[in-house]
Specification:
Elements: E1 2-6, E2 11-15, E3 24-29, E4 32-36, E5 42-48, H1 50-55, E6 61-66, E7 71-76
Antiparallel strand pairs: 1-2, 2-5, 3-4, 4-5, 6-7
């Protein structure tokens, strides 16, 4: 999984898989698109107006939780 951010366009992309097939982009809202393959595999989520969405209520921190290992990592995003 990879999170990228393009500050020139203010677009974030959370990639789950490399695109190995043709995908359909589904517009969920004015600020959210989902790339999905014909078999239902989600390749990625595109965040438009990303800096506002990624800052959220916690000021721009990305929290990764590994519930199986009982570990949490907090990463400050530079937006």
């Amino acid at each position: 999984m990879k999170l990228t951010y393009d500050p020139r366009r203010n677009i974030g992309y959370l990639r789950f898989h490399e695109k190995t097939a043709e995908v359909e982009t589904i517009r969920v809202s004015d600020s959210l698109n989902v790339d999905i393959a014909p078999d239902g595999t989600i390749y990625g989520i595109e965040l438009l107006n990303a800096n506002q969405q990624l800052r959220g209520d916690n000021g721009g921190h990305f929290v990764i939780v590994n519930e199986a290992a009982g570990k949490t990592e907090d990463i400050a995003l530079e937006l």
